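Now read this:
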Amino acid sequence: MPRTGKCPNYAGCLLAYRGETITVEDDEPYVCPECKQPLIDAGRASGRKPMAIPIIILGGISLLVIMGAGAVYWQVRKLSEKPPTGQIGTSFEQAEIAGESGQFLPSRHMAVASPPPAASVAEVSPAAPAAATPVESGVQAQTPNLNLQDEKNQAVKNDVLKRIDLMPNITAEDKDKLYMSVERARQMGRIITIPFPSGHVALEPADIDQLRGVLASAQIQPFLTDPTCVLVILGFADIKGDEKSNLHISTERAENVLDTLRNNCGVLNVMHAVGMGGSTLFGNEQDAERNRVVEIWAVLP
């Protein structure tokens, strides 16, 4: 008479995995027709459970748990490490060396820094690095005032036009484009102000995050979505150093902010960076830190 049985090879045989009963004639080998493993009596097999599948599932879950724990540990370890400030120095000579090597000083530290020593007499002093001046407020959106009849707006426009001819790293064609954009502007006004400590010429990550937030605000977005709006980035320095040094620092600040807007913030508007040199536009000589700024101006045709 035919015999019945079940294949015990749960891990490698589809018939065993399905729990199918296999009928074998008397004159045929008592083996599974698929995997050729010996069969067991159907009555004995009824109490057996395929253990291979649960074991594989449990093993996979355990592996995922171990990998997840490892990822959490690595993330906690990274967060616990103190990030480098990136500060190379604060003197003009150090800023210039850093700029040539492709590294720039951060604009400020989030923690309150020590005030500059009494012996420091210039933002760009080559003799002794000046400590970073604490800046209470970071990147700020300004209430747009694009009226060129405003005395301050007109004064800045005139200063920009004077500076365009003095810009060293710009072609004559680009000078003409910038000059015409400013000269023919129907509206022009400051929309963002970014403060810098003494000798610093570039933004650090915290500043860039603040800048992104300001750019995303309802106050600034209309300018960024207007393809006719030209952004003029004006860099300023205090007047404690010599004119050449102050012009260099102010130009570095403006160019680095322009690069940040384009490469880190996705701003697509036409942009020009203009170094304005030393200034007392925002504060007197005793309040010099107010003049270490970059301003972003919107120019509309």
